[in-house]
TrEMBL record:
<dbReference type="InterPro" id="IPR029063">
    <property type="entry name" value="SAM-dependent_MTases_sf"/>
</dbReference>
<feature type="region of interest" description="Disordered">
    <location>
        <begin position="1"/>
        <end position="20"/>
    </location>
</feature>
<protein>
    <recommendedName>
        <fullName>SAM-dependent methyltransferase</fullName>
    </recommendedName>
</protein>
Length: 292
């Protein structure tokens, strides 16, 4: 009989730097259609001052910057991803500071900056915020129990930096029947079952995004759905990409990394095409809300 360890006593045994590289090189691009749809709908361009929360390794910020937007990103949970974002956005910046990334001056007040990024970003300029016109949280919620926890506090710190009427974009997984990856996530939930509800997969709910917006005092102002298929060159890259999301961490803590790798590979076989590539159609949802 396999001896299961509690989530409190056993953290996932992963290399954070390797995980961040896999996210940046393999997985992050799967959400490009989502970024593009939001930026097109909101006419992101030179007049946009964007603050990206949980910005990961910065691909969404880079796409906004290519449209002329001034961007700033923060990701308190993953300094490894944020370091990659800084390398993308500020290739000439000195190494060693990974608490904020951006191409425009964020002008953060000290109190809020301390909560958001553990200090003002190295590239911050000015003493008073001009007001962000767009705040994004592109990391999808609605797939793990409690995955919106902490988002309320992050929004509470960020919203004072946004101007009245600024758009706030939240993203989440679509209905399970529209997301082929749901079958793979169910496998992870079975492995993580000894942990109970601790970060285990659960089906996305229709009002997940609206509930987060409501708790933050935001006013919904439209939503949309975007097809974001997950496509990989082979099974190995699919496994690495999916593990980089963190959605399998509870399964790793409950069993071990090798077991999860094995069962994830098996779960992906139905999605493997004759040429060896892996293809999983998915739909993601976004909500646009406004700062009152």
């Amino acid at each position: 009989m396999r001896q299961h360890l509690s989530h409190a006593d056993s953290a996932p045994r992963v290399d954070p730097s390797a995980r961040a590289r896999d996210w940046s090189e393999i997985q992050e691009r799967m959400l490009v259609p989502l970024y593009e749809a939001v930026y097109e709908r909101l006419d992101v361009g030179p007049a946009t001052r964007l603050l990206g929360l949980r910005c990961g390794s910065g691909l969404a910020l880079l796409m906004a910057a290519s449209r002329g937007a001034a961007v700033t990103g923060v990701d308190p949970a993953s300094p490894e991803r944020l370091a990659l974002a800084r390398a993308r956005l500020l290739p000439d910046a000195p190494p060693g500071r990974a608490d904020g990334a951006g191409t425009g001056g964020c002008g953060t007040r000290a109190r809020t900056a301390a909560k958001l990024v553990a200090g003002p970003p190295a590239d911050a300029v000015g003493t008073e915020p001009a007001g962000y016109t767009l705040v994004t949280v592109f990391e999808p919620i609605g797939s793990l129990a409690g995955d919106s926890e902490g988002l309320g506090d992050l929004l509470a710190d960020a919203l004072p930096l946004a101007g009245r009427g600024a758009a706030v974009v939240l993203a989440g997984w679509g209905p399970p029947e529209r997301c082929a990856t749901s079958s793979v996530l169910r496998m992870a939930a079975k492995l993580a079952d000894p942990l109970g509800a601790a970060r285990a997969w659960r089906p996305a709910r229709r009002d997940d995004l609206e509930e987060v917006a409501g708790r933050a005092g935001l006013k919904p102002d439209g939503s949309g759905r975007v097809a974001c298929p997950f496509g990989y060159a082979d099974l190995d890259s699919a496994v690495r990409g999916l593990l980089s999301t963190g959605l399998f961490d509870a399964a790793i803590a409950a069993t071990d990394a090798k077991q999860v790798d094995k069962e994830l590979t098996e779960a992906l076989h139905p999605h493997r095409r004759p040429d060896g590539t892996v293809w999983m159609p998915n739909v993601f949802r976004y909500l646009i809300a406004r700062v009152p």
